[in-house]
Design goal:
Blueprint lengths: L4 H5 L19 H23 L5 H9 L5 H4 L4 H4 L3 H19 L4 H11 L7 H24 L6 H14 L2 H9 L12
Helix pairs in contact: 2-3, 2-8, 2-10, 3-8, 6-7, 8-9
Length: 193
């Protein structure tokens, strides 16, 4: 039996992010998902090592790798549209879940359950782990804003403030530690690192 699941997943590289913004460097959901996986893993490690938690950092990284996979089907909805109001956000969430289910149907039956736990983690995972993955997604947005500003693109100034404010409002100690200790280096040049 031939399965097209992984061929579809590989198409994440064709879905661009930040469609409403002028970018100095384009970003696709494949590279974004890799960055979110690194950040989610880091937040869990910080939680475990610094805050005495028992978070599954590896699981967080895997879920983060696939967190935007549904956008292969839906495309990337710009944030101002996606979060315009509760009705749009809830409708889009249902559309994303339907798209994830369509992707799952591309898998052989014996693999589907494992990937369902990754593509639809809300049904199986600890809420705090998902909250850290959401924070990692917002950290990735903040990092994109900082990189664009460093390249002289003022288009991202308001987006940077909004991303930073959302992260602070999450009141997650792992995020606060990351913001304080690791985010400043993103403003550095290679020679300054």
């Amino acid at each position: 039996m031939n399965s097209s699941f992984f061929a579809m997943i590989s198409r994440m590289k064709y879905i661009d992010r930040w469609a409403l913004m002028r970018n100095t460097r384009s970003e696709n959901i494949s590279e974004h998902s890799q960055e979110v996986a690194v950040l989610a893993h880091a937040l869990c490690v910080i939680g475990n090592k610094r805050l005495g938690k028992s978070l599954n950092a590896d699981r967080a990284a895997v879920i983060a790798l696939y967190h935007d996979a549904a956008e292969i089907i839906t495309g990337d909805m710009p944030t101002p549209v996606k979060y315009y109001d509760t009705a749009i956000r809830e409708a889009y969430r249902r559309i994303e879940d339907d798209a994830a289910c369509k992707l799952l149907q591309l898998l052989p039956d014996d693999l589907r359950e494992e990937f369902e736990r990754v593509l639809l983690p809300e049904q199986t995972e600890d809420g705090y782990l998902l909250l850290l993955i959401k924070a990692a997604d917002k950290l990735s947005a903040l990092i994109k804003c900082l990189e664009e500003e460093k390249a002289g693109n003022r288009e991202f100034v308001k987006a940077e403030k909004a991303a930073r404010d959302k992260l602070v409002l999450m009141k997650l100690p792992e995020v606060d530690i990351f913001l304080e200790e690791f985010i400043p280096a993103y403003a550095c040049t290679l020679d300054e690192l």
